[in-house]
Amino acid sequence: MAIDWRPSAEITTLRERAHLLANVRAFFAQRDVMEVETPVLGQGGGTDVHLVSLVTQARTDKGQRRLWLQTSPEFHMKRLLAAGSGPIYQLARSFRDGEVGSRHNIEFTMLEWYRPGFALGELIDETTNLVMTLLPSFAGPVVHYRYRELFHTYLAVDPFTTSLEKLRTLASERGQMPAGTLANEGRDTCLDLLMSMVIEPQLGQNELSVVLEYPASQAALARRHQDVDGEWVASRFELYLNGIELANGYHELTDAAEQRARFNEDNAERRRLGLPEVDIDEHLLAALEHGMPEGAGVALGIDRLIQLALGKARLEDVLAFATPNC
Amino acid sequence: MANYSTNEFKGGLKVMLDGDPCSIVENELVKPGKGQAFNRVKLRNLMTGRVGERTFKSGDSLEGADVMDLEMEYLYTDGDMWHFMKTDGSFEQYAVEKKALGDTAKWLKEQVPYTITLWNDKAISVTPPNFIELEVVETDPGLKGDTAQGGSKPATLSSGAVVRVPLFINQGEVLKIDTRSGEYVSRA
Fold it and tell me: 3.90.580.10, 2.60.120.620, 3.30.930.10, 3.40.630.10: which CATH number matches A11-138+256-325?
């Protein structure tokens, strides 16, 4: 069989992609947000239980070292913030092992930016502005939803108070899962499944949907606060368009001790699941200890936004060479 | 059989699900940026032919199914079973049940090669070639001069199938038929 050496995307698409990226840079230049470039390699990695890092070996000044390909540029960018960079953005190559599909590629480009002094609401407005700048034909409204409200609307259950047993039953029915698959799974797995399979496809239809107030257990690197009902929730938002998750933003955690505790919790969960532990990024913790300004940050899958802007069916249609063809 | 993990699922892989052999049609990763990954998998049940969707946690696995497709010529039926013979020169024969034969019953012709799907060495389905040549055994008399277009009529073929054919076709003629659509293609 002949080797398929041709690009995954058409050349005309790559030209349109270049144009959209120029618009992204213009958007931030106008707002005095500095473009930065941080390393793809790091001495620590993301501990997130659901992300698989690629690891490599390198001969460094300290001898043979294990280095982690970054799953997002978050840690390095936060170190810049702690060093007084002010607002920054980056179009960063990021790597997540095993993620291949019509909306995933192992190597992808993350548009990530940080706004010292911003409240979450201000960052949501800026994010939706950026999306609408890149989608001039999109005139739809921006609609905010609480995570809890979405579960009431689409599934008639409460994500915080419904019993785990009931969530397991509901998730395995709605997901058409083989019997027993969820028997040992916790609340978050059931909620993730219902969110991805049932709710997400309904979001962002002729509107930009902003989802707020995720369960506190899904805070990742976001702060937690109590909502109007007194539930602890994550100070985090997600943005959806055409049923596709586009962006994930946080009111950023700046407390070094809390950050270390969350890394340790992740690694404990990794041990429980038999997954490899990830070296904790001590540089980030030291930077937080020094002090990172309060603020908000967001990561946006720019390949997906380009895919939507150009009306392409698959992510690879906007990548020069998708992983299967790299 | 080996077990296959969700990241090895791809179109054409044969796996066991609920006790039936299935062929994977499509496998899509569904993963929230922060959260558990799932695989939404479309599978064809090889016993019933039905296509359904299932969700798996990424990393879960299914047992492989011992399924293979072999080319065999149709020989004859004894009324209970339909007999086929491998075309690899081994002369090995397989008997196929009516249930496994399914709709292919109406496209049977001796010495034509069919694709037989075997599960644990037992025939579970029979797929005819895309095109097959069959004789018209019964149809209304042909209309002279009507060779262009306009109108069709039913014709019964030697295999028992009834297909729509142009008005100019006569009994005894051999026709080329597309077995996937059941449509007349041309005179053979």
Answer: 3.30.930.10
Average pLDDT along chain B: 92
For the segment A53-67, what is each residue's pLDDT rounded down to a tens digit? 999 999 999 899 999
CB B56 to CB A178 under 8 A?
A: yes
Distance in angstroms (rounded) separating the CA atoms of residues A140 and A204: 9
For chain B, the structural domain boundaries read 3-63, 67-127, 131-187
Q: Do A195 and B52 touch (CB under 8 A)?
A: no
Alpha-carbon distance of A89 to A302, in angstroms, equals 13
Q: In the predicted model, what is the mean pLDDT of residues A15-37?
A: 98
Give the gap in angstroms from C-alpha A120 to the nearest C-alpha of chain B: 18
Position A280 scores a pLDDT of 92
- Measured in angstroms, the CA of A94 and the nearest CA of chain B are apart by 13
pLDDT of residue B50 exceeding 60: yes
User: Which chain B residue lies closest to A220 (C-alpha atoms)?
Assistant: B34
Look at residue B146 in the predicted model and tell me its pLDDT: 55
Out of A50, A177, A200, name the one closest to residue B55 (CB).
A177
Residues A199-222: pLDDT tens digits? 999 999 999 999 999 999 999 899
Q: Determine the Cα–Cα distance for residues B84 and B111; give it in Å rounded to an integer.
A: 9
Give the integer Cα–Cα distance in Å for B150 and B172. 22
Rounded Cα distance, A71 and A38, in Å:
13
Residue A131's contacts (CB-CB under 8 Å, 6 or more residues apart) are A138, A208, A239, A241, A246, A247, A300, A305
Q: Output the pTM of the full model.
A: 0.84
Interface with A, mutate which of B20, B42, B55, B60 (most A CBs under 10 A): B55
Contact B34 A248 (CB under 8 A): yes
Q: Which two tokens stand for residue B156?
A: 């019964």
What is the CATH number assigned to the segment(s) B67-127? 2.40.50.140
With contacts defined as CB-CB under 8 Å, which chain A residues touch B30?
Answer: 101, 196-197
Nearest CA in chain A to B62: A178
**Using CA atoms, how far apart are residues A197 and A143, in angstroms rounded to an integer?**
20
CATH of domain B3-63: 2.30.30.30
